[in-house]
Design a protein that fits this description.
The chain is an alpha/beta fold and 135 residues long. It has 5 helices and 5 strands. Strands 1-3-2-4-5 form a 5-stranded mixed β-sheet. Strand 2, helix 2 and strand 3 form a beta-alpha-beta unit. The chain is globular. 20% of the residues are buried.
């Protein structure tokens, strides 16, 4: 599968779908982006079950801003609508393959459990802080 262009119009639908989505935030003027592009494209051909999307940060400034992209290329890995990885830097082919393997191995039930617990933990922390301030 070739890479697809992601825009504000199709990003949410693509990223929130079931499965793995790898997103490359890039720009035409960026040398490291041009170096990473063929590696990303080659991986998209090897991993037909993964969606490989590219966000041109010059044309999609709103998306870049939404995700706090300040350095490109930035690679984001999303699985079942959950961002598991987001780091700037062009990865060598082997590192990209290792990242894909790690994303495949993630126990998404455990991730969802941890996400569900976060609001509880934040609420407990807030209550503790309020008790300490009044006590």
């Amino acid at each position: 599968m070739a890479t697809i262009e992601l825009t504000t119009e199709n990003f949410d639908q693509t990223a929130n779908a079931d499965g793995i989505v790898l997103v490359d935030f890039w720009a035409a003027w960026c040398g490291p982006c041009r170096t990473f592009a063929p590696i990303f494209e080659k991986a998209s051909e090897r991993h037909q079950d993964i969606v490989f999307g590219k966000v041109d940060t010059e044309e999609q400034q709103e998306l870049a801003s939404t995700f706090g992209i300040t350095s490109i290329p930035t690679l984001m890995a999303v699985r079942d609508g959950v961002v598991l990885y987001a780091q700037p830097g062009a990865l060598p082919e082997q590192a990209l393959e290792e990242l894909i393997a790690k994303v495949r191995d993630v126990d998404m039930d455990e991730v969802r459990r941890q996400i569900a617990e976060q609001p509880e933990q934040a609420q407990q922390t807030e209550q503790t802080e309020q008790t300490e301030q009044t006590g």
